[in-house]
Amino acid sequence: MSDMARAFDxxxxxxxxxxxxxxxxxxxxxxxxxxxxxxxxxxxxxxxVSLAVAERxxxxxxxxxxxxxxxxxxxxxxxxxxxxxxxxxxxxRVGTALPLPVxxxxxxxxxxxxxxxxxxAGALADWHRAxxxxxxxxxxxxxxxxxxxxxSFADLVARDLPLPATPEETQDLITxxxxxxxRVHLLDxxxxxxxxxxxx
Length: 200
What we know:
By secondary structure, the chain is α/β, with parallel strands linked by helices. The chain is 37% helix and 24% strand.
């Protein structure tokens, strides 16, 4: 088991659902998914984003692909989905989210909440690959000056993706990664961002 999987496995039974659920609902509201969208929830944790999408769109045409390296997080997400009656809306997968286990240009929407700072710049490039032209990526990043991970998590933060200090720096990160139409909001010391893969 990788250090990343081990670290998040240790959190799986005592995750801060209120905080992550609040971010997930706000991210889903920003992205405005549609019932026919093909969606991936990258580094999904215990499924906050996937469950928020399922709540918003009870008639999803295609299950959300929810991927996380932590078996404990996936198990917690499955249990939450079953309790809430959304177990059929989500395709849970234990495994690496980089690269995403999907064909090129096969997704309409990629979500990533509270994880991009651990995945690094390669994740943005992979989302560009996985999204169809016009597809969108909705993600969060912590505000640089307010982020102070401790313990093993400090060592897991990616070194190739400088955390933004301002909305403008977040927009620059989006455009430098080859996306367009950046939209950025601040919520609870976290930037919520929406980016579009060019094309139509």
